[in-house]
Input
Amino acid sequence: MRIPFGVIVLAGALAVSGCAQKGLRVLQKPGSGPDEFLILPSKPLSTPDSYAALPAPTPGGSNLTDPNPSADAVAALGGKPGAIVPAAGVPSGDAALVTASSRYGVEQGVRETLASEDAKFRHRNRHLGRIKIVPVDRYEQLYRKHSIDPFAVSEQFRKAGASTPSSPPEEES
Output
């Protein structure tokens, strides 16, 4: 019995298409293990210049080897880590920006609200992903109707007389 060449090519194409990586577009958690982004390595131990200059130990408090990602990121980008207001977590130079952006009020718990609404939306639209022969971009499928066409928006602003930066060429479909 001979297997037609077209069937072999189709089976090969399906097998290879299963190897595609979608990266961060996968909406489900890949496993039940720990979240690797919650683990912060401590800073290396070092000998201080003067043992007399060390702060007094505070039970339950922080020490010099505890990680401080916000201050480390500010220092890595050339900023002053001491400029961060500890209570608000906002650099003192950005206080005016935060005040202006919150002038109409700030809804408390907005992240939790959005996360629950997004979960409900994905649950309502889960019928899109029941049968999957080849890997698909679930994020793009679910949110296609809510996406903004940047070229159309740019053209709309240009017609209104606003100066807009140049855009990369639109991809041919």
Remarks:
- Residues 109-130+137-143 form one domain.
